[in-house]
Amino acid sequence: MPRVIGHIDLDYFYAQVEEVEDPSLKGRPLIVCVFSRRTEDSGVVGTANYRARDLGVHSGMPIVLAKKKLEGRDPAVIRMDHEKYEAVSARIMEALERQVDVLEPTGIDEAFFDLTSSTGGDYAKGRKTAESIKRSVLESESLTCSVGLGRSKVVAKLGSDLSKPNGLMVILPEDTKAFLDPLPANKLYGVGPKTSSALEEMGVRKVGELAGAPPSELEKHFGKKFAAYLTAAARGTDEDPVKAGLGPTQFSRIVTLKRNTRDPHEAFEQLSEGIGYIHDKLASAGKSFRTVSAIGILTDLSTKTKSKTFETPINDSVTLNETTLVLFQELSRSVSKDFRRVGVRVSGLADVESQSSLSDFIRPAR
DNA sequence: CCCTCGATCAC
DNA sequence: CCTCATATCGAGGG
Hints:
Elements: E1 5-10, H1 13-21, E2 30-35, E3 43-48, H2 50-53, H3 63-70, E4 76-79, H4 82-97, E5 102-107, E6 110-114, H5 116-119, H6 123-141, E7 145-150, H7 153-163, E8 168-170, H8 176-180, H9 193-201, H10 207-211, H11 215-222, H12 224-235, E9 250-261, H13 264-285, E10 287-298, E11 303-314, H14 317-334, E12 339-347, E13 350-351
Parallel strand pairs: 2-4, 7-8
Antiparallel strand pairs: 1-6, 1-7, 2-3, 5-6, 9-12, 10-11, 10-12, 10-13
Helix pairs in contact: 11-12, 13-14
The structure holds a DNA duplex.
C-alpha cells in the first residue's frame, strides 16, 4: 500500500505573523529584517509578504536593495523577533501532533507528517484531514498555510511548494510520474544551486530526465548515496520515513562583527553574548555537550572552523568560554584574511540527566 | 571507529 | 551587498 505523506508550510511565516498582530500592515508591502548592525541598514530580508514579493523582493535580499525596490510604496519594515515566531510555531506544532500519525518538524514553519495508518492509504480521507488541518491553523492562529499530499516526502513537499499560498495539492500515487516528469530538476528537495548546475552540465534539466539518467553517470558526479537519492526522488519512490521530532543535536550562534578583524579577543568579546545564549539553550534543554566549534566567516565569505571534543560531556559555562577563546586563538593563526562574522557551536549533545542516572551503571545485556 | 573540517542544502 | 541555524555527507587523518 502506498503511503500517505504530507508536508505543511506556513505561508510567508514571519511576515504573516506580523500581519496577524497588526492587521493594518496587510495592505502594505512588508519586510521582516535581520539587521546586522554593521551600518544603519546592513542586513537582509528574512521574509517578505506577497505585496513586497510582487515588487521583486525576496528573502536573503540585502535590506538596502529591498528598500530601493519598495521606494514610494509605503513599505513596512520590521525587525525580526525570533522568540515571537518560535512561540506561534510551538503552538501550531503541538496542535498538529494531535491530528496526524507522525509529525516531523523540519523548521520553524514547516513539517512533514504521515497519515498512512489513520487513512488506511485512502487519499480521499487524507484530503479531508489536510483540509481540517488548514482550518484549524486558520481558526487558532489566523494563519494560512499550504499543504501537499503524496506518496513520498519529496512529492508532498513539491505539493505544498507549488500550491502556495493558502494551497492544498494532492498528488495521487498513480499520478506521480505525470506530475514529476515535466518539473525542473532544481525544484526537488535537496537539489540546490550546486547540484543543479552539475546536472545541467550533464544535460539534465527536467525531473523526468533525472529519473531516467544512468546511475553510473550520477554516481560519478555525486557519489553512490546521493545518486541513489536523486533517482528515487525523481521517481517519487524515496522511502525516507517521517520521523517523530527528535530533539536538536547541536546549537550554534553566529554574529556579524562591527568591523573586520582577526584578533581572537575582539572576536570572542563580540561573541560573548552569543555564548551566553548557547549556554541558556543548553540549560533549558537539559543538555550537555562534548564538542565546541569556533566558526569564522572571512571577508571573502569563506568559512573556517576549529573544534575540540571532550572525553566526557561538559555543561559549565567557564569551560565553554575558555575553550571558545582558545579555539579562536588557533583559528586566527590559521587564516590569512580577517573575520567578517564569528560564531560558536556546541554539538554531541547528551542529556544532563543521563550522566549520573542508574542506566549508566547497568551494562546492557548482549 | 572516532575526530576534524569543508561543502551543500534550505531556512 | 552578503543573516542565521541545523542536518548531513564525504574526505582525510588517526
